[in-house]
Amino acid sequence: MPWLQMKLETTDEFSDLIGDAFLELGALSVTLMDAKDVPILEPAPGETPLWNELSMMLLFDAETDTKAILSAWAMNPLSAKTKHEKFEQLEDKDWEREWMDRFEPMKFGNRLWICPSWKPVPDESAVNVMLDPGLAFGTGTHPTTALCLEWLDSIDLIGKTVIDYGCGSGILAIAALKLGAKKVLAVDIDPQAILATKENAKRNQVFDERLTVDYPAILKGETTDVVVANILAGPLVELADEISGHCQIGGLIALSGILDNQAATAREAYLPWFDMQAPTFKDEWSRLAGVKTER
C-alpha cells in the first residue's frame, strides 16, 4: 500500500516528546536522522547516541488528512521546536523487506563472518556470528567494530581468556568465543547493553559457562590474556590505568572508538604498560594494539 511521509527538523532535546505527540496524531513510525550529515560517534559507556540537530521522518497511512495533521500540530506548543514540516508521497514498497535487503553478511579478516539471521551463511566452514542490525550498539557496520573484529580474527584466541570492555551488543565477546577463547568477561555500564549481549549470546549458542556478562565491578582482581575495548578516546584515556591492569604481562590489547586525530593521545596513555603498534586506520577511525610488558 502507498504511504505518506512527513518530514521536519528539530533537536534531540525535544525529539522524544515530538515523536510521541505525532504517534498520538496517527503516525505509524518515527525515524530520526542527523540533519547535518555528521557521523554518529560510538557512545561512551552509559550514553545514548543521538545527534543534536535531527531530521524526523513520520510515516502515515496514505488516506491521512494532511491538512488536519498540520493544523493539529500548529496548535501544539511543541510545534515551536520544529521547522520545515512537509508531507510527501512514498511509492508503494515492502519497506520492511527493503530494509532487510540492505544488510548482507560481512567478512572480517580471513574466517570471521557477521551474518543477519534472514540471509544464508556464505561459508558454513567459517566462523559465523549471527547478529541482526538494530539498536544493539554495533553490528559490524561501524568502522570501529570492524577494526576490532579484524584484529580478533588475526590473533590466536584458542584457549585464551578475554575481556570485552564496553560490550554493547556483545559482538566482540561472541566473536572471541567462536574464534576459540575459553572464557570471556563482557562488561558494560549500560543495562541495555548487558541485556543485548545476553540475548545475542543465546542466539549464537555461546551463553554458557564460558561467558560472563555483567557490570565492570566484576573485573576487580581479574586479569586476562586479551583485552579489547571499543568505546571512545576520552573514556579510554581516563580509564587507561584500570583497563591496563586487567591485562596480563605478555597479554594483548586492542582499543578502538578513536578518531584518527585522537590516536596519538590515546596511544600515549597506554605506553606506560604496553609496547604499542602504529595505529591502524579505517575511514576516519583508528585502532590501537599492543603487548603488555614488564616495566
CATH class of the largest domain: Alpha Beta
Written as H for each helix and E for each strand, in order along the chain, the element string is EHEEHEHEEEHEHEHEEHHEHEEE
Main pleated-sheet profile: 8 strands, mixed
Count of discrete domains? 2
Give the CATH H-level superfamily of the largest domain.
Answer: Vaccinia Virus protein VP39
The gross shape turns out to be elongated
Please give the count of helices: 9
Task: Tell me the CATH topology of the largest domain.
Answer: Rossmann fold
Tally the beta strands: 15
The structural class is alpha/beta
- Taking pLDDT < 50 over at least 5 consecutive residues as the criterion, the unreliable ranges are 37-50
Mean pLDDT: 87
Strand content: 25-35%
Which quaternary structure do these chains form? single chain
Helix proportion:
25-40%
CA radius of gyration? 22 Å
CATH architecture heading of the largest domain: 3-Layer(aba) Sandwich
Question: Overview of this structure, please?
Answer:
By secondary structure, this protein is of the alpha/beta class. It folds into 2 domains: 3-92, Alpha-Beta Plaits (2-Layer Sandwich), CATH 3.30.70.120; 140-292, Rossmann fold (3-Layer(aba) Sandwich). It is 28% helix and 31% strand. It is built from 9 helices and 15 strands. Strands 8, 9, 10, 11, 12, 13, 14 and 15 form an 8-stranded mixed β-sheet that branches. A 4-stranded antiparallel β-sheet has the order 2-3-1-4. Helix 4 (143-154) packs parallel to helix 5 (171-178). It is elongated, with a radius of gyration of 22 Å. The termini are far apart. Residues 37-50 have low confidence and may be disordered.
